[in-house]
Hints:
Four copies of one chain form a homotetramer.
Chain A: E1 3-11, H1 16-26, E2 31-39, E3 44-52, H2 60-74, E4 77-82, E5 87-93, H3 98-108, E6 114-121, H4 127-132, E7 137-139, H5 148-160, E8 165-168, H6 177-182, E9 187-191, H7 203-210, E10 214-221, E11 231-238, H8 245-268, E12 272-275, E13 278-281
Amino acid sequence: MRTFRLVIACPDRVGIVAKVSNLLATYNGWITEASHHSDNLSGWFFMRHEIRADSLPFDADGLRTVFAPIAREFGMEWRVSDSAERKKVVLMASRESHCLADLLHRFHSGELDCEITSVISNHEDLRSMVEWHGIPFHHVPVDPQNKAPAFDEVTRLVQEQNADCIVLARYMQILPASLCEQYAGRVINIHHSFLPSFVGARPYHQAAVRGVKLIGATCHYVTEELDAGPIIEQDVVRISHRDNVEDLVRLGKDVEKMVLSRGLRYHLEDRVVVHDNKTVVFS
Amino acid sequence: MRTFRLVIACPDRVGIVAKVSNLLATYNGWITEASHHSDNLSGWFFMRHEIRADSLPFDADGLRTVFAPIAREFGMEWRVSDSAERKKVVLMASRESHCLADLLHRFHSGELDCEITSVISNHEDLRSMVEWHGIPFHHVPVDPQNKAPAFDEVTRLVQEQNADCIVLARYMQILPASLCEQYAGRVINIHHSFLPSFVGARPYHQAAVRGVKLIGATCHYVTEELDAGPIIEQDVVRISHRDNVEDLVRLGKDVEKMVLSRGLRYHLEDRVVVHDNKTVVFS
Amino acid sequence: MRTFRLVIACPDRVGIVAKVSNLLATYNGWITEASHHSDNLSGWFFMRHEIRADSLPFDADGLRTVFAPIAREFGMEWRVSDSAERKKVVLMASRESHCLADLLHRFHSGELDCEITSVISNHEDLRSMVEWHGIPFHHVPVDPQNKAPAFDEVTRLVQEQNADCIVLARYMQILPASLCEQYAGRVINIHHSFLPSFVGARPYHQAAVRGVKLIGATCHYVTEELDAGPIIEQDVVRISHRDNVEDLVRLGKDVEKMVLSRGLRYHLEDRVVVHDNKTVVFS
Amino acid sequence: MRTFRLVIACPDRVGIVAKVSNLLATYNGWITEASHHSDNLSGWFFMRHEIRADSLPFDADGLRTVFAPIAREFGMEWRVSDSAERKKVVLMASRESHCLADLLHRFHSGELDCEITSVISNHEDLRSMVEWHGIPFHHVPVDPQNKAPAFDEVTRLVQEQNADCIVLARYMQILPASLCEQYAGRVINIHHSFLPSFVGARPYHQAAVRGVKLIGATCHYVTEELDAGPIIEQDVVRISHRDNVEDLVRLGKDVEKMVLSRGLRYHLEDRVVVHDNKTVVFS
């Protein structure tokens, strides 16, 4: 069923819901899902509506046109997206296959509603797996002494493919600040720890040294500061003294996969709103 | 902060949200929380609003008066409750103290927003614990050969105390059908299994015999059919071959406490709507 | 690191551990992992040792020879397996790809320590995925009116491949009793509910009708009675009123995959002992 | 059933299990539970046996006497404890009642196998609750400008009561280093975050600011460095954008209670061995 998703964020005040739902009712819009959130701390209001496209007398642009005056009146940050326009996603990976294979299978079986325009990797290892899924694979090696050319090529590919979203599926390289800024709120990373614990390199090793009893993974938007962007989703798994670092890596992979795929799904369905380096997730 | 809670259920159609939110906006109602659910299967719509009492020019009855025409128009089942009018709760227990002690502590520390009018038990064991909390304790023994007099007395006490809600905190007796009907949707039980597994007696023993790897608890509204009423909340805990029946009982107690207190909290805050022997829980 | 796994089950009595550990110490055996369990209910004792192969002066057969007298003395059910002899596994699937893809990826990335001799399916759909992994694919269609020829062919293939173990990765057909008996304790199924809830067909539909708040999956050994065999592993995921049957199916897939892969891993590493239709899992 | 618990830690080498189990078999010791762990990283070996007291021809001191030569031979850190000698526990609390009430109820209902010699608090608030349970309550106010006299009094009380163990049930004060050293491995704290995230003050506030999707609690032994001691147990609960700091505090309380009571139980049953600032927990 094709839907339009109307997502707004604005300073809270009386009458927002009435105004928006009136507008939708005026045009006979059939709301299939509605979510609201008033954040007491910041005084902001967040709302997401999913509306059956065939119930409205216009397309997404038509909805944008009639909605714009309300958005202005309330000072809203807002967007309307059309479920029929699948988001274009570039996946980036390195050598580890678990997150990439998981996303590719979900895509292949129709669970992930997007278009994967290509996979970019700094290694050749995963080419065959990607190409079996009918997706272009770009090998862009990164020279540790001179990374700029590689990231210029990555930027060129991402722009050429009109990507809406970049997913770092255990890419293991830090994207340049310019790319992060240009795609702010649209670069999704999976970090293999329960942030803010174990920022940076070798988090499973850090976890083993500290002797924690649960390990986790964090899906977050990438910002300039390493592993400090808005968190979309997290989860954990129980470990014990019997698990060495290799076991943590193995157990962690399953959490990473789950957390990344859930976070990406929320993003693709326009369920995530970022405010104050935090997320509202209308799951 | 005092709020009014408007909870509705009705056949789904276009314009409900607009109508309701318009009404609230007309009176300048400040919505602190709004939840919607359209059930595709049944074609019903469910909505819960929490509105700051001090933002409206009338009290709960005033809200009921202005809302009644809308309710009629849409054929709504509905209620308005006032957070300032704490629900009157009768707790019923037997000899096991864990659920009762947990609820009493939550009440005592201000976490459970209700009035506990009394505890009724078929045994004297828990009197001192109850009375320390300043709550009346009624010992109503149940004669296995002739249960009617006991339940007449229970019914009398419940009615005398104008109870809004009865909580069976491991009461271990089956309430008579007449009482269940009279308090339909207002008698909350905790069953010590993950229903519909292990209906009836000795669920932990049944679980041990079947060799399950997780055990659970289920908080549900009581109906005439044993352990078959609408489920409010459930949870589980992992067990292993090392755990014998006594261990299951011990581990299960913690799940029972958590599940019952969460379920009761949802009920007290008018977050639960029952339809088709299932619940919508706006948690 | 190559290890021998010594797994025993016998009536409990004093001196078993001493006898076994003495034997191992006599031959200078380096125990890397040891697990014990005394079951009070049945009076049985279970033990699993993992011993470095290079620490012993003989191979697995040598270990069997020196151990046999002890086994006789204590009336043990026992086995010695050699981690260097990877178990031969036949996977069976139907049209649903999620469990199969998950197992194939784990195998491909070296996480599942076994040999997958082939995939047998009653449909052609998954051939390409299987063959990309370099594994033979056998299409054995099942005629609903006359299933015997198909299962004769399945039996023939399984025997021809000297399979140690059959994994039903959402195969959706009931194996004939003869095959279950022949491979007792070696046919692993994933059932898409938290057994014993929702035995049989369409468990997610049953779960939606009952209105449970968690759904689950169960990995178990197949016995003649449907969905009643010894449970190896289970897990659950939280759902809510917002999730319709399609959502349950989607959410359930992730639990099925995880539970099946964990259960299979335990089996492959000889961590599971069956007794009285229940399992001891030395995880 | 009365048992002796033999807990050892020593550098790993061949023959330890044989030596120990031989000794126990010699005296006809009935082992009800046995757990082993070889830590590859440190090269240490850990073992815990639970032995029926009535199966041995001597008491705990007798067991110590016959075991001492083996302990010397293998350079073991070791202890024998007698389940009949319940550990003496001093609970310390401040104003928050949830952890204290939980522990007192578990004690009262026979679930926690220990003797609670007293509760020490820097406030009077919880006196009545403690005294209802028949446990002495000591009010030792702490002068922020001059804490030494208070901690001298605490130390005096702890010593006078021959405490085996001190439990900080949300005590909210930092114990002096001298007391931590004197009771090393015997002071148990509950920290209201998933360490190492959110060390120090106001962890729920820190969690809200960071926007994490799970909050947790950590039970650990207290060492001189704040919130950095060996972790015994941890757990988490899911939160969302709807939960403000007050909600986090409320939800977190349940995790704190569970984690502290599990951690204390492991300690009381001699299931925890500390090595390298980490724990082996034979749960």
